[in-house]
Amino acid sequence: MQFAVLLPWWGYVLAVAGAVVLAWLAYVRVPVPLDAASRTLLIGLRAATLLLLIAILLRPVVLVPPSAANNSLLPILVDVSRSMRLTDGGGPSRIERAQAIVRDLQARLGGEYRLELLTFGEALAPGAVDHLAATARRSDLSGAIADLADRHRGHRLAGVIVISDGGDTAAQETESARSIDAPVIAVGVGTAAASRDREIVNLTAGEPLLAGASIDLSVSASSAGFGRAPVEIRVSANGRPVDVRRVTPEAEGAPIHEVFTVSPDPDIATVYSVEIPFQEGELARENNTRSVLVPPQAGRRKILILEGAPGYEHTFLKRALAQDPGFDVDAVVRKGQNDDGRDTFYVQAGGSRVAALSSGYPAKRSELFAYDGIIFGNIEADFFTRAQLELTSEFVAARGGGLLVLGARSFDRQGLAGTPLEEVLPVDLTDRRGAVARASAEVAGAPPNTPALTADGSAHPATRLAASADESRRRWSELPPLASVTPMGGPRPGAQILAVALGGGAPAQPLLAVQRYGQGRSMVFAGEASWRWRMMRPVTDTSYETIWRQIARWLTAGSPGQVTIAAMSPSVPGIVDRITVTVRNRDFAPVGNAEVSIGLTAPDGQTRQLTPALSSPQDGRYAVAARFDQPGVYRVAATAMQGGERLGTAMRQVLVGGADLEMTQPRLNEAVLRRLASATGGAYRSADQAQDLPSLVRASGADAGTPEQRDLWHNGWSLLVIVGLLAAEWMARRRVGLA
């Protein structure tokens, strides 16, 4: 206790002495004789009354904790995602353990703090302890902390208690912990050790380059709690069984990796599902299945072939690509020179593109960027202006197009070294000193310039000729030798040598090299007379066409159109995801004033029309939120208009329910909870240590603000005491005859 009206020490002494003196003076001379006891009683009662009045005037106060100022709010966040309904090794479920912890906190801390119970899954929401249910489709822990910070911005919190199994299926773990100005005490519910469970951890599909071509399904699985018992892996395509394997893990809990070779339908979307049959006693059933979508091939890819002179190489290559319905091929062949000494060209192109090719090669950005891929064949670097070479470099790096350079004349002397295209190509053009890679299998006694795949080439989709790597290598080894191979330097960092030329006792020479450059892809083919692979093989052998068509498809696979739809991953039905559309003009510059419309077709055939809003003018990006309620394949179609002119269209198919991320590796993820607690100055405890929570909250050191002063006199007891003293003094006076 202390006084609100502060006086020096001698001031308090004078006040007390004055009260005693006044009381003494009141009874030192009275008309009635008093004995010593009566006089002392009356003086004492009068002094007590005066001292109480002086104390009231000095305002006695006590300091109270900031709870009186509503500063002791203690939010309790409970994870109600579906993984919280799991049971770890028998006993209560995770959500039931969370309920017990909340009830204990309410009983032990309810009198000290204002407790606010909130639930989080897909969003932060108020909760009631008796109605907690683990039904949320996903757990957005990062988003919940960010929403809590917004909800109580400007308020002081005594702390935050988070009860969760650590699952965070948000797109990415954000820095939301930095936004909350209170220590977070995280409580982990569940078991971090591997439980009895089998799971498809990951599933990816290769890129189909040709109709009917095979692709690889890469499967990663795990089996814990079953020892080395064989795991049955089933593969189906659109519900139709395709393959079944029984795989024995190398050890208990060891990762399982399997590759299945399949052939998707080129005309319709194919959903491949991989499943491990559920065994009684597993932690979760939902993670035993995963699916992946292989979309059908759509649209024609525009390719420009520029040849330095007529020849067999150009003729056979153009024919192989032009006969593929997936390509729209423009070709320019330099015929010679006219009387003025200028180059003349033979142009085969669509009517609207002939004018841009009349001089041999496009000079404008919009004209060149209309293509998805470019092939230079036997054309020297001096043919191009530096501006054209710079434009071609931008075509690969920024546009995302593909570039293939082949033919000895393209690399003659200095070639493209020292030009803007030098860095684009996958090999060093300044050091051409010999072998850079080994074939995956040496060919004994092979004639000079015999092609052979490298280890990278055996697995690459551009050079795949058969379902298996061994069969693909065999078919490559049967190809006739090339006429010659131009010496190349070693691969650049990140580049791959897919094929080499062997034989004649000479070291292996790089034949086919690739790399990704910026947004696009580039390739070098160092051989001469690849048409031999067509002319010197049986009529039924289509290796030549397959190789060049796959190469062209791989080169142009990443080339976007003027309108593109970003990838989406709505994991389970009911999820709301953003549909993002990027719009560019013919120069591939972003368009910020387009009219964009989206048609979203559900698996049952119903279509919704959506209108996205401009979200990033500098990128030409438009976005709208959409709810994906049904499992299966959705079709997203976008159209962009500007001033009544159609800029382009795009289509993407999206698989909903392919992977249940909420049930992926559903063990307790302590690492996420520990990071959250550490970033906020809080602490982490397991559910078995929940009894420590009240002491942790009290000792958290959270800034609860300045304590308040509470007046002690401002109540009825002060008045009752004064009235009582005065009444006692009156009665004493009456006894002695003074009243």
CATH superfamily of the largest domain: Class I glutamine amidotransferase (GATase) domain
Low-confidence stretches: 67-71
Residues in helices, as a percent range: 10-25%
SS elements, strand count: 35
The level 1 CATH classification of the largest domain is Alpha Beta
User: What portion of residues belong to β-strands?
Assistant: 25-35%
Radius of gyration: 41 Å
- Report the span from N to C terminus: 38 Å
Overall pLDDT score: 88
Q: How many separate structural domains?
A: 5
Largest sheet: 9 strands, mixed
CATH architecture of the largest domain: 3-Layer(aba) Sandwich
Strand order across the biggest sheet? 17-16-15-18-19-24-23-22-20
CATH topology name of the largest domain, in short, is: Rossmann fold
What does this structure look like?
By secondary structure, this protein is an alpha+beta fold. The chain has five domains: 2-65 and 709-735, no CATH class; 68-193 and 667-698, von Willebrand factor, type A domain (Rossmann fold, 3-Layer(aba) Sandwich), CATH 3.40.50; 197-294, Sandwich (Immunoglobulin-like), CATH 2.60.40.10; 301-556, 3-Layer(aba) Sandwich (Rossmann fold); 563-661, Sandwich (Immunoglobulin-like). It is 22% helix and 29% strand. It has a nine-stranded mixed β-sheet with strand order 17-16-15-18-19-24-23-22-20. A six-stranded mixed β-sheet has the order 5-4-3-6-7-34, sandwiched between helices. It has a four-stranded antiparallel β-sheet with strand order 11-10-13-14, with no helix packed on it. Helix 1 packs antiparallel against helix 2 (36-57).
